[in-house]
Amino acid sequence: MRTEATIGRTFVDRLIEEHMQGANIVNEVSMAKSWITDLSQKVAVECMQLYGGYGYMEEYEIARRYRDVAVNSIYAGTNEIMKVIIAKNLGL
Amino acid sequence: MYLRLTEEQRMVQQTIRKFVEKELMPLEQEVLRNEREGRTGLSKEKLEQLQNKAKEVGFWGINTPAKYGGADLGQLMQAIVTIEVGKTFVPFEFGGFADNILYYGNEEQKEKYLIPTINGDKKSCFAMTEPGAGSDTQNIKMTAIKDGDSWILNGEKTFITGGNEADFVMVIAITDKALHQKSKGREGVTCFIADRNMGWKSEYIHTMGEGGPASLFFDNVRVPEENILGELDKGYNLGLEWIGFARWMVGAKAVGASERLLKMAINYAKERETFGKPIAERQAIQWKIADSAVEIEAAKWLVYNAAFTLDEGEDNRHLASIAKLYGSNIGNRVVDRVLQIHGGMGYTKELPIERWYREARLWRIYDGTDEIQRLIISRNLLKGHVKID
B2 partner at 20 to 30 Å CA-CA among A50, B63, B210, B279? Predict the structure, then answer.
């Protein structure tokens, strides 16, 4: 999880820099959006499981986080749409 | 090998399906509204009304021995019924059953606790889990100290299903500390039947799902000697039997919910259009539907097999763990895909999908987590209790 989160962070940092330099990063942004939001769901599931029954209680923040991340793969263009953009830009 | 439901099983399936569609599904919006506004999904009166209707159709005590007024239809039938009822989230169960371990009571206990539970006049719960001990029962701290002809119970239990409503609890406490330590928790614990009016208190636990469990508090609760269930110091075996007996039912519940959710996704995919055609024509959606169908089919047969094996009088615990682990996991994957297919609509509280999304997460935790099921399955194989043919 730590490794994947670091990869995600590195990717986003690079895209911020390129965006500030005015580069066209539509394709890479679509990749980052879908991959990292999927990752956030995967990590939330794993972390919740570590808490056992406590993770399912609203007293622990992890339950709230788990519900929150579910929308990431849907809004701002679903992850399916992100993949359509990536494929189109690859010439498909 | 005959891989078909019998005529009788199909008839029961159809009857239950009709009952669920006619009596329960129309209540879904009301349940969602009640829960959103902080009430229980179904009022007590409404639940009783429904149970009376079910009684008329002949579904009271589906699995309860005929001797106690039940229909005694067996485990496979129970699986079929659980799958059908799982197709709605309306918090309903056919009444007329009792915890398996209550049948171990002596005649007086049966009279006082088992029969009223089957009749629906009393509600029970079972309490083993503590703040620091779940499936690892050797960590239990609750004590029972003998005082004259009764026992004094002290300690705390948590995540007790039905604990808020129960009239009595079957509670596991340490009765012989030295024996408990020496036997690594397998002996020296006893199961007591404790009425609520003996002085234990319960507190509602708010969870991510609806209808949460309870914490139970015992502060010098006096329980008479005759309320020991089973044998003194042998409560561990009762606990194991209670926990393991219906594990696969979680799988059945997940299969029922998944089938309903997949149906919703198929309907929605055909309706919703993007860029000029229904999303059902997009491969990304088609594959989600196909993957879900494959997994549901596999999980359903695992559940049937676990139930069938028990009906045959064989030990089904290995198969029950497999059905529970797989069923609860595919349930989570299916609800995630179905929510995704519905897009933003799926995330709203207008549709029941998000409710299932929250509930499904519990399936991988209660009745033994994924990790405990894997521990059981691998241990059975590594120690040779179960052999690969």
Answer: B63
